[in-house]
Design a protein that fits this description.
The chain is of the alpha+beta class and 95 residues long. It contains 5 helices and 3 strands, in the order ααβααββα. It has one domain: Arc Repressor Mutant, subunit A. Helices cover 57% and strands 19% of the residues. It has a 3-stranded antiparallel β-sheet. Keywords: DNA-binding.
Amino acid sequence: MFKELDPLLHAQLRLAVMSLLMQVTSAEFTDIKEKTNCTAGNLSVQLDKLSAAGYIAVEKSFKGKKPLTTCSITKKGIKAFEDYVNTLKQYIHNR
């Protein structure tokens, strides 16, 4: 019996965000938006979902007079991502 894939991470954009954040200490909203090629509105909704699950931390501040949103992955998010990848590997290797 296969373990179920985390439905929160199974969505393409959320998986892309998590993959990106696994590689860096933190990332600005604009960088994530650019690298995932999505709209600001869609990204904002997906970041809210990941944040609500405790997978990422979202920090809002200002850079000069402009608002700045910075995201980083949490320990819970790292574990969830690693579990997701390991479960996916089981699906691939145990046909």
